[in-house]
Amino acid sequence: xxxxxxxxxxxxxxxxxxxxxxxxxxxxxxxxxxxxxxxxxxxxxxxxxxxxxxxxxxxxxxxxxxxxxxxxxxxxxxxxxxxxxxxxxxxxxxxxxxxxxxxxxxxxxxxxxxxxxxxxxxxxxxxxxxxxxxxxxxxxxxxxxxxxxxxxxxxxxxxxxxxxxxxxxxxxxxxxxxxxxxxxxxxxxxxxxxxxxxxxxxxxxxxxxxxxxxxxxxxxxxxxxxxxxxxxxxxxxxxxxxxxxxxxxxxxxxxxxxxxxxxxxxxxxxxxxxxxxxxxxxxxxxxxxxxxxxxxxxxxxxxxxxxxxxxxxxxxxxxxxxxxxxxxxxxxxxxxxxxxxxxxxxxxxx
Length: 350
Known about the structure:
Layout: H1 3-6, H2 14-21, H3 25-33, H4 40-53, H5 60-67, E1 72-76, H6 83-86, H7 88-104, E2 107-111, H8 118-125, E3 131-133, H9 142-149, E4 153-156, E5 166-167, H10 171-182, E6 189-193, E7 203-206, H11 215-229, E8 239-242, H12 248-260, E9 267-270, H13 273-286, E10 295-297, E11 312-315, H14 317-328, E12 341-344
Parallel strand pairs: 1-2, 1-3, 3-4, 4-5, 6-8, 6-9, 9-10
Antiparallel strand pairs: 7-8, 11-12
Helix pairs in contact: 2-3, 2-4, 7-14, 8-9, 10-11, 12-13
């Protein structure tokens, strides 16, 4: 490495620009922050001196401090950063957040979470005016870190924390509705599930599954159990197949195992379209007829759902992202009532 590369030239200061231009530091500051207060001649001198010295303008952090705002909205993912682009649900939600940021002229800062001790510091140091927290677990320490900043914060779909509004659909009621469609005429149903907690352990459960720390998983499981019990069959006979991540490959692998077992399911209610689409691939590979031998339902009505004929639960995550962003930026109080949802019947159910 050369000496110049190892010792980069220090950033020029506003005072140095003022000396080179023959004006006061206040004039240089106004030239960037309040140009209407500077004469055309003085502004030209400042621009010329700044160009000669390679001065790019006041540091963004300093401008933010003077304005009393950062001009950016933070989104805490609770997942690896690539999750924002890999998961269709997260991508739709972030598109809604981005719509608001673009309309309001503010930036969008993604705050990825690793599960390590640096997470709290990363949240504390984020130069943002507020936070939107993507749904997470009841015991996620990031929630305390967000609360400690004292900035406005909104949580998508839970968990609930004092002073942090939650915006999301009624997952329990929605699961009960789609569950009634999935379990019609079924005798051996399975729920293809999101993780139970931050350990993200894979497993197959029947009956009492213990504590579920992800509110979305907990509420949807409760709704599916209610739908199964409404058929007159014991709630304890409903099986829960927990996938560690929301990915079609996970749904396909688990569904394939279940279809090869001694008690193959005749209905699969998945907590996402990705898991459901994986289950459909597994059924096709196993020669299982859908819906005659296996009913399958999804959740979210993603772009791939309709071409696959997937019966699913439609909700607008983009709209929910918009609502969360507007509330976090103080543009609107959280709307009364929850966002809407509807069951979309197609050809994968009886």
